[in-house]
Each structure stands twice: as C-alpha cells, then as structure tokens.
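Hi there. Long-time user, first ticket. I'm pasting a complex I've been working with (about 650 residues overall). I'd like to know whether the download I got is complete or cut off, because the file seemed smaller than I expected. Thanks.
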Amino acid sequence: MKTDMLTIIRKEFARFFKDRSLVITTILLPGFLIFLIYSFMGDGMMKEFSTDENYVAKAYVQNMPDELSPAFDQLSAEWTVVSDSEIEDTKALIQNKEADVLIVFPEDFVTRVSAYDVKSGEAAPNVEIYYNSTETESANLRSILVDMLDQYEASMANKFDINAGDGVFNLASEKDMTGQIFAMLLPMLLMTFMFSGCMSVAPESIAGEKERGTIATLLVTPMKRSALALGKVISISCIALLSGLSSFIGTMLSMPKLMGTEEGVSAAVYVVTDYVMLLGIILTTVLVMVALIAIISALAKSIKAASTAVSPLMIIVMVISLMPMFGGDGEKSLAMFFIPLYNSVLCIHGIFSFTYQPLQIVITIIMNLLYAGALSWILTRLFNNENVMFSK
Amino acid sequence: MEEILKVQGLKKTFKLSAKQQKIEKTNEKIKVAVNDLSFTAYRGEVFGLLGPNGAGKTTTLRMLATLIKPDEGDAVLDGASVVKNPEEVRSKIGFLTSELKLEEFFTPNFLFDFFADLHGVSPEEKNARRKDLFERFGIDKFAEVKVGNLSTGMKQKVSLVISLVHDPDVIIFDEPTNGLDVLTAKVVTDFLVDLKEQGKTIIVSTHIFNLIEKICDRVGIIVEGQMVVCDTLSAITGDKSLEERFFEIYEEKVGSIA
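Hi, the file is complete. Here it is re-exported in full:
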C-alpha cells in the first residue's frame, strides 16, 4: 500500500510541478498579487491620509485671538482675515475645494472664555471651523486646529495632568504589542490562505479526474482505494501548503506598507518552539481541509460543481477565524480544542499572543490527525462507491 | 479445458433518474441491465460477447473488471471472486474500455511507468515490455508527446498498451476497435490474434460480426441483459453467417427488429 501511495503522490506532483501554468497560477501568482495589491492599498491609504510636506493651506480666520496667533503662524498655511460679509463666499470656496479652512472665533474670544463659568449653565463660547472632509488637506488642517484649540482650552483650566513629561507609561513590551497585532490578524489570514490553497488544487485533482474519466483508469488497477485516497490527500496537502505559504509571504512582505510603517512588527519575538508548534498546527489543519474538500470533490460531478459546493465552507472558515478576536483572552476550555478547524484557529491565536498551553496544541494536532484519518476513510469508501465514482 | 472464468447468475440493476426515464420512455424507476447471466471462459480462448447497444455487454465487463458490483451472483476469475477479492481480480486482468481515459497532460512513457508501478512490475520487466509493446504499436515515435496532442488512434494504442503493462493472463476488452480508423483497427485485431496465440484468455465485447468471426472461439449473445445463446462459433452459426444467425436469435427473443 505504501508503494502505491508513493506512486500516486509522485504522479500528483508530476501533474502539478511539470505544468508551468499551474505552478505560476497556484504558487507564484497568489503571493505576488497579494504583495502587489496590499502594497498598493498601503500606498494609497498613505496618500489618502497624508498631506504633501510642501503644501501651503489656504486658511481664513475671523477674530483671531492674539494669544493664538503665533501658534497659527507656525502652521503651513497662508492666513487671510475675513469680515462678516466675506464669510459665505469663503464657505463656497471651501465647498469648491479652492480653500481649506475657515475658522470663526467669537468677538472678544479670550475675554469671554476667561469670564466663562462652567457652573453657570450658559452656552460656552463657540469656535466654528468650516472644512471639506473630502479634501485630505482640508480635513488634516481641521484636525490640527482642533488639537491646538483643545490644548489651549486645557491650558486655561489646568487642574491636573495625565502622563505629563517624557516618561514611559505604556508598560507593554515589544513582544506583547507584536503578539497583540499578530494574534489579531494572522489567524484569519493563515486559515484563509490555507483554505484557498486547498481549494485551488483539491477539486481539480479529484472532481477533475472524475470529470475527465481518468479516475476509472486508476480504479481498475490492483491498488487499494485507501492508498489512492491517502496519496491524493497527502500530495494535495503539500501543494496547498506551498500555495498558502506563497500568500502568507506576500502578506508579510506587504504588511509594513499596509500598516503604514516601514519598521513594521518584528516576528523575532517568537522562539523556535513557537514556530514548531505553528508548523504542526498548519500541517495538520491543511490535512483536515484537504480531506474535507476531497470528499466534497469526490461527491461532485465536475470541478465547477465541486468549487461551488466548497465555497460556503470558505465563508465558515473565515467566520471561525474571526471568533478569537471577539472572544477575549480568558482561559479556553479544553473541549474547544476538539472542534475541527476552530481548534486550529484558537491555537494559532494562542501561539501569536503567547497564551497557548502545550496540551492545547497536542490535543489539536492529535484531533486534526484523527479527523484527517476519518475523512480519508470516508474518501476511501467514496472511491469504492460506484454510484459516486461513475455518476453522470 | 481449464476453466479460468466462471460467471454465475450475475444481476445488475440501475436506478433511473427522471431524466433517464424520459430518455428511455419508461415509468420504471429501476432498469435491469444484466439479469441472471452465466457463462464460462476457458484458459487460452477468446470469448466474445455479442449484442446490440444497451444489451448489457459493457455492464457485464465492468462487473468482471470490479468497477461495479453485481447485485446478485458472482464471477470467479482464476480463483478470485469479483465480489470478495476485487483487488486480486484486478491484478490478474487487463481491462480496456473507451470509458477509461488517460490523463492528457502526461506522455505515454510516463503513463507506462506509472501504471507499471501500480501493478508492481519490476524495472527490468517494465523496460522490456515497454520496448516490445511500444515498438509493436509504433508508440516509440510519440512516446514523449503528451496524450492530449495525440490522435484518437494513437490514444487507443496507448490505452491498449497500458492495459497490458503487467502482462495479465486474462484480458477484457470492451469494443476494442470502436471509433478507430481501418488501419489502427487492423493493428489492434492482429494484436488480439497474437495474444490468443500466446495463450492469453480474452473476453471481448463487440457488435462487429467480422471481429467475432475472426478471433473468437466461443460466443455469448446477450439480448436485454440475458444470455440467449452461449456456444462455439461454429455451433451457433452452423451453415449460416454470424450476422444472419444473430438477427434470427434476436427476433426470436425480442420480435421484429423494426
């Protein structure tokens, strides 16, 4: 049986790796496209939310207080004082994106603010800032002005400070911060990429052989059906892993741009044991996914039917992958690690957030192997079922 | 004569979908494809199954090749039951039918190696058989061309060679010359004669009278899933041609051909 299984694996590898277009579309393109798309998205977001350093904003002001004037002058803006009669025209300019901001202070702003008693119940002096949120420069200048005025307001009634000075108040380590970001993003990304990898090869390998009539040629050889099932599951898993790895590398390389920092987060905070655990989880999870998709593909009459039937499963995997983000970091019941796919999500989350226990990983790996074994057994039964194999 | 295949009371039914019921113009939900079919084949003979389309020839051969399971009955091939020991049966037979396709991506060379490995053929034997069969069928000229780029005749030659990769004693061919041009059909027919001379047992289904007359020792005529006649060719035909006798037998069983 072992020899037959290896023969099937060799054939599946030859079918895949000797087909240049399959290698390009399944392994190289996903990673490359993800890198390209995420990088463009990152660049686009940076451009969308940042202002050109040399840009000089066109700003208009009425009743500018003398105390605030020096601070306003430091901004990269050309200030023009407007009168009451010019207010509406200035608003129109902002609406037409020909000006960025209009700030209207009440008359005697500083005096009125000083005299204002919070307990009086009267309306506080109001500063009006007109801007255009669809214009990045306008929205950014408005944010800066709001911050400046908040600071000015705080300085007028400074009863106490929070975290004043240059001290380090956030005591979270780089490890914790990296863990938090990775644990939030990677379970879903990894599970999705693994599943996509499986989806891209399993239906072709099983439903495709049925559709083309080549599976019958295999079924008249003396090979055991279990050798065929295991050979298929193992070879597809290897190819799916490569496809998933490609997508993962593409994501990791584009992450600094996507997250808006070239320094990024460092994966160096994880030790070898963490990576070994992760590898164990990934390998066994892919086996479960491939065996599951293989069964659906064996039941389907064509590649198209198989892909359609597998799609809802993809959505389920994505939803399961998001669950740890909303589940809190409390201790997980061991029973959770018996649930297929969800156990893998919990483990990946636990590994990246440094909250896993080795027993959870061991249970998950064993359960995944058992599920993959049980699913492969079902696949073997399907290969033996003439109604399934030769249904038209 | 030594019995090599004993078929006893084979029965196979298929469920008909609504679409199939419409096509077959019937309200029956079950179609009896093969009904209580029995015959014996002897070592070294060519046994022909003759019958019109839909008579149950292919279903019978698929049961003998263990691709499908009989509902009732059994067939024992060289001591192995198709019901109880399907893997053993598969190791003893070579099966060729038009429904068995080859992966178009691979070359004849690759497929020969692949199927030889699945049949547990040693490397030496594999190379010797490849040389012999590839030369005989002229496959060596396109041994490294992908199957997808070959003509129908070339593909049929490759399928034939691959079905014999393990030098089986019993060879089951379903319509071996169907769809072939006259030249390729002649190469295949001559090869069947050669196999017979080598002492192989061949079970062949066809509706080509000429092929039966040329190579078969004994013939079984199947009509509507039942074996109507099973005897030597000369005993069936007497002083008539096989074609004449076939239509006589068919009309006796079914009625008018029209």
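A couple of notes from our side: Chain B has a mean pLDDT of 89. DSSP finds ten helices and ten strands in chain B.
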